[in-house]
């Protein structure tokens, strides 16, 4: 673990990404301590509408007169939670299905891949809407809806990579040495597939955050919570562009970019640490 | 008369991240029309770079010094258009690995005709019928029926593809042909046929041939002269017969020793009667393995094999690719379930799975052909060797056991190799790590699938010596699977010849290889390139 950390620290962009992420997570977690939630309430808006950044409201105000800074701050909580949770769910399910299908082969592989194809063919948005109507509205439902539609891509990817790794002669050697399924998957296949899963994860976080905004836009999110997606939606809906209110659009947009970038940098740094061949060259 | 090809003080450097790496350092060579020159050397000696430099086919990162004269004209000063005209029309290349050099989605006739159309002058493109006739002619020259022009590459065998490559090289009637390892991936019998075709074409048409190979015996069979390359320099040059018979440079000697003359006692590394007269260790009884093939029928990969390996014995299983020898090896190790018959180890039938099979794994171990891919690139030497120990939870101090196994495989001092990753090792060292990983479990039988086929000539001898020493010191029985009869002559006590899934001849090495009785064994032996036979 120590060696792992030493290796990671050597990668500057990775450290930068990790720092940004840590800062964002810390701010998101401390939001209730440092700010007052009341400012998010439309009925208790304290400021004039459509104001550019000023001392009282550093990032200006929206169409109801609420502080954009406060919304962005609290929005990070929802966006990060949904993005990470949905990604973990979809990458987890996808990896298990892909690994199992490739490693065991036979009828199990056929069955798993047909199920994957079924989900791949389903229009993701329609499935998500159906899930949200059946299940109670809230963050949990959004996570489930995004996770359920995003995993097939990961499953296909992991399966392909697993097949490639399993064709290597060192898998044969491990079998002859007496290694069982657990040993082969744990010692050889997973480390070989992991970098790909990591990169895939960082990309999935990005699309999950965007998917969350789409669902919020469609009114399927929790109306009581502010997220970056719902902020962008509100901004376009109430004509922030025609008002020239760049301060309403930029913060949530930049927030998404920053999170995605930070995840990507961390993912790449992790990849170099985990793949010794990248480290040397 | 100017020489067809003249290299004057040719040097090539590659620019890499670690600075300039010299590949060729000051090579002088001449080749006149009608002459044949063999260029021998190990991987990385610069022989392929040299060949590519002739037609300026090197990547941009290469810096070329000296002169390459094609028919007296300097290749470096040629204009792009002139170079294009010269490529193929004056000099052409038979590339390494015919399997990948052909376009899989185009008929071979079109591919052979391609250089002809490309080189035709504008407005004078040959008509389809002319092209067809020319392709048929070329196919005939390489001894393929003209009807094969409509075939796709996957419908041809390896030897046929290689001949198509030769036909392609001949398409524009070049005066110089450069053949880069033209037979490396081929079986001995097919290799003999391809070399035969190539040699005849060169002699009939008075072409110049520069053939590149790591295999001295192949070069000796086709070329008048051989030049041995080592670390970018020509270290020895001379008529094939002399060079094969009495190599002077130590490196030439190593190369020559790697391609043993069957029948020459000097190449017999295993001492007489070294095999103990122990009991039978491994026996198969009527072993059969069938695979369903695409047409819905069955392929009999192993069709009733009775093989016996005694304790402390080295048995060579010899056969062409596709003869079923690798399937047989996989079945012996329990990686493949037999369709019929059975495998007996120490008198007990081979367990089909579970705990018993895992226990068997401690008794029989595998050494794979290519050590580079047999080792997980992410695992250090220590992890690779300790892998088996951890799986079987072998009691004892792990570090000590790993060090012991590495020392047995002659990687000394073992501690120095612990943190090393496979890509930092040489090919021979990697193979030793694979062997050490097998030895760590203290097996009684080693199954080695082409253990030296992917290794360089100088390393080959060391690994063979190691296998022999392991037998002498640890009493290890070894089943060596190979297409290389010279290898069998080198180390085996007994030889089993496999053909179409059956063992056609089994017996002591001297008996089978010197006085073969089965026609297939005779064919196999006749196909081995003799070079300059001394005995």
TrEMBL record, chain B:
PANTHER family xref list: DIPEPTIDE TRANSPORT ATP-BINDING PROTEIN DPPD (PTHR43297:SF2), OLIGOPEPTIDE TRANSPORT ATP-BINDING PROTEIN APPD (PTHR43297)
Protein's membrane topology: Peripheral membrane protein
UniProt family annotation: Belongs to the ABC transporter superfamily.
PROSITE patterns: ABC_TRANSPORTER_1 (PS00211), ABC_TRANSPORTER_2 (PS50893)
Pfam families assigned: ABC_tran (PF00005), oligo_HPY (PF08352)
Cellular component GO terms, alphabetical: plasma membrane
Domain ABC transporter: 5-256, 282-525
Molecular function GO labels: ATP binding; ATP hydrolysis activity
Keyword annotations of the record: ATP-binding, Cell membrane, Membrane, Nucleotide-binding, Transport
Name this protein carries in UniProt: ABC transporter ATP-binding protein
SMART domains assigned: AAA (SM00382)
Subcellular localization, as worded in the UniProt entry: Cell membrane
InterPro entries: AAA+_ATPase (IPR003593), ABC_Ni/Peptide_Import (IPR050388), ABC_transporter-like_ATP-bd (IPR003439), ABC_transporter-like_CS (IPR017871), Oligopep_ABC_C (IPR013563), P-loop_NTPase (IPR027417)
Gene3D superfamilies according to UniProt: P-loop containing nucleotide triphosphate hydrolases (3.40.50.300)
Gene Ontology BP annotations: peptide transport
